[in-house]
Design a protein that fits this description.
By secondary structure, this protein is of the alpha+beta class. Helix content is 59%, strand content 7%. It has a domain at 4-56 and 126-232. Helix 1 (7-21) packs antiparallel against helix 2 (30-40) and helix 2 (30-40) packs across helix 10.
């Protein structure tokens, strides 16, 4: 990763990358820069060490029990054989983040969605499970694990301005991209996973708080520039 002293060079690399992609300064909003600044400020070292320095402690057994008890009594689905095999690929991502004890539940929702409930349970809608490839599912879950790294911000998400909400999402993309890179997985699956989910949900009339999310293009630019920055050091 990048030493704090390397921030100027990191931002110069980012500016050069933006120029190469043909995006003007007006099109590159503050959240992208703020998120890149965050990762530029992470102490130098290997990716695993950097992520461990940011990783929050695991929740207590009591907190886990309360989270599980708070879930609705109905709506959990039993995955079939194909779905179980796809879910099994998530173990590598969870283990990397020392979250192998995080429960995974397939849930009945009318849209494609993946979320972490109270840092204890990974909820995957059946539509998302069927929509995404195994690689895309790993990438999407790596993003959701990223929310745990910024949980205090995420819990206040609804009270924050749109730019701050976008920054949170980009930082989670950064955690996901570094995770996939460290595991030797295809980082581009993060972009395709987000695109598939967004386009599918739009096709069935489900839209998110679009003001609070970066565009797919902005996310792609951020991830590519972050990886370019990381590989320089």
């Amino acid at each position: 990763m990048v030493e704090r002293g390397g921030l100027g060079l990191a931002l110069a690399l980012f500016s050069a990358f933006i120029s190469e992609t043909g995006v003007s300064a007006q099109e590159t909003d503050a959240p992208t820069t703020v998120a890149l600044n965050f990762f530029a400020g992470v102490p130098h070292g290997d990716i695993g060490a950097a992520l461990r320095s940011l990783r929050p402690p695991q929740i207590s057994p009591a907190e886990r029990a309360r989270a599980l008890a708070s879930l609705p009594k109905k709506g959990e689905l039993e995955p079939n054989g194909v779905e179980r095999r796809k879910l099994a690929t998530l173990e590598a991502v969870l283990k990397y983040h020392e979250r192998s004890n995080m429960e995974i539940k397939v849930v009945d929702l009318p849209y494609a969605g993946i979320a972490i409930h109270q840092r204890a349970v990974l909820l995957v809608s059946r539509l998302a499970l069927r929509l995404l490839s195994a690689g895309e599912l790993q990438a999407a879950v790596a993003h959701e694990i990223g929310h745990e790294y910024f949980w205090s911000e995420y819990e206040r998400r609804d009270t924050l301005p749109a730019a701050s909400r976008q920054t949170i999402e980009l930082k989670c993309d950064g955690i996901a991209a570094l995770t996939l890179l460290a595991l030797g997985l295809d980082v581009s699956r993060l972009n395709t996973a987000m695109t598939r989910i967004i386009e599918f949900n739009r096709s069935i009339g489900i839209t998110t708080d679009e003001a609070g999310y970066p565009t797919v293009r902005e996310r792609d630019i951020f991830v590519r520039s972050l990886l370019k920055m990381v590989r320089v050091y």
